[in-house]
Design goal:
Blueprint: E1 2-5, H1 8-12, H2 18-31, E2 35-38, H3 67-80, H4 87-90, H5 93-100, H6 102-117, E3 123-125, H7 134-138, E4 143-148, H8 152-155, H9 165-176, E5 179-182, H10 185-194, E6 203-205, E7 227-231, H11 240-251, E8 257-261, H12 268-276, E9 283-286, H13 291-300, E10 303-306, H14 315-322, E11 327-330, H15 333-339, E12 344-346, H16 351-363, H17 365-379, H18 384-403
Length: 404
């Protein structure tokens, strides 16, 4: 068996998130000594560097004379004069970055298509939903595995627009795939409901993981000792405004801060909204420099809050549990699937319910202790080794069926 994993998500995302899945699969393929190739060299991806396979030169670095360079110059100039980058441009930063790399990406796309046509590989696993390989795959004997992470673009089209490439390509690619992996039963159910033409027989569920318990202890150098933690992207369906409303109510009764880890600096509208709630001095954003730092944020928090209206899985739930941080999250189906009885749930559309649940966790030690112990037990049900091994089983099953 020989596997090829493509490059899309490594240009789309910074280290973490979806790319974590493929980093773990690659690690396991190496350990099992199974032949594989990634379409770009990802050995330094954790440092933000992608390299070309043969020359080992960095390929995710835009040329100086590029749209992305112009964007960064404008951003720097505005900051010098005390102005913020317009939000419409901030939201498009990753798109501008990818656009500036379009020549490099086109060349890699062509190389992947050549490899598919050579029939050198038995398994092809694209990492996202561009369809550049469609014609080549149709003429190849290679079997394709596709991962569906969530159906957020279909369920919340108001945030993405009808012309979004994922909405355009998802159904076609799922029908083209020989096997589909969903990262939760909730995601599988949503996929089959929204796209009834897809056969359930070729869809399986492989859970992710999120264990930070082995990360070293770090000193908590935050200027505030008592805080609630929010992690990651804050936009759209992440429901951050509801959290702010609830936190403003909690602040009237309790001296506490809200720490937002990752997700980038606050936008102009976020700063304005935080100010309108009277929370400017109590809501903070910090970057995540390492897994050890993220673990430290969880370990020292009063609780971790995950207010999303929708997710495909919810890795931060498990990360928090693994280091003894109580979890308070939306009572959405996928969170109940992942966290089960190890989380305290609230109505994500009801700020008063969230406020009451926050106060419960702040004031009821027995509730906190029970959640922490349940979290330690629950996180043991998930591991990256199990996740990676399950991927390899899918690859092997398709290889065996192809041989027959």
């Amino acid at each position: 068996m020989k596997v090829i994993i493509d490059h899309q998500i490594f240009f789309q995302n910074r280290f973490g998130g979806i790319s974590k899945i493929f980093m773990e699969v690659v690690r396991r393929l190496k350990e099992r000594r199974i032949e594989f190739q990634t379409s770009v060299n990802i050995d330094s991806y954790g440092k933000g560097v992608l390299k070309e396979l043969s020359s080992h030169s960095q390929i995710n670095l835009p040329d100086f004379f590029s749209l992305y360079t112009a964007y960064k110059i404008i951003q720097k100039t505005l900051s010098i004069f005390g102005f913020a980058m317009p939000e419409i441009l901030m939201k498009r930063e990753r798109g501008i970055f990818k656009f500036s790399l379009r020549k490099q990406i086109r060349i890699i796309n062509e190389q992947v298509c050549e490899k598919l046509l050579s029939n050198e590989f038995q398994i092809f696993h694209p990492t996202y939903f561009q369809s550049y390989y469609g014609d080549a795959l149709a003429r190849s004997k290679t079997k394709m595995v596709l991962t569906v992470y969530d159906l957020v673009h279909e369920l919340f089209p108001e945030y993405y627009g009808s012309s979004n490439f994922i909405l355009k390509n998802r159904k076609t690619l799922c029908e083209l795939a020989d096997h589909i992996i969903c990262i939760s039963n909730t995601t599988k159910k949503d996929l089959l409901r929204l796209y009834p033409s897809i056969s359930e027989e070729k869809v399986s569920v492989i859970y992710l993981a999120g264990d930070l318990s082995e990360e070293k202890e770090m000193d908590n150098d935050l200027p505030y000792q008592k805080y609630i933690l929010f992690v990651g992207n804050r936009s759209d369906y992440k429901n951050f405004t509801t959290l702010l409303k609830s936190f403003a109510l909690v602040r009237k009764e309790t001296e506490i801060h809200l720490l937002c880890a990752g997700g980038g600096n606050f936008s102009y509208s976020e700063k304005r909204e935080i100010g309108e709630f009277g929370l400017t001095n109590f809501v903070h954003q910090h970057s995540i420099g390492s897994d050890a730092q993220l673990a430290s944020y969880y370990r020292n928090a009063e609780m971790f809050i995950y207010p999303s209206l929708y997710e495909g899985f919810g890795i931060p739930l498990l990360e928090a549990m693994s280091v003894g941080c109580p979890v308070l999250c939306s009572q959405i189906e996928v969170f109940q699937e992942v966290a089960w009885q190890a989380a305290y749930y609230f109505d994500p559309k009801n700020p008063n319910d969230l406020k009451n649940k926050i106060n419960d966790l702040l004031n009821r030690k027995e509730l906190r202790d029970n959640l922490i112990q349940a979290g330690f037990a629950r996180v043991k049900q998930f591991s990256w080794n199990q996740c990676a091994d399950a991927h390899i089983l899918v690859y092997e099953s398709l290889t065996q069926s192809h041989a027959k």
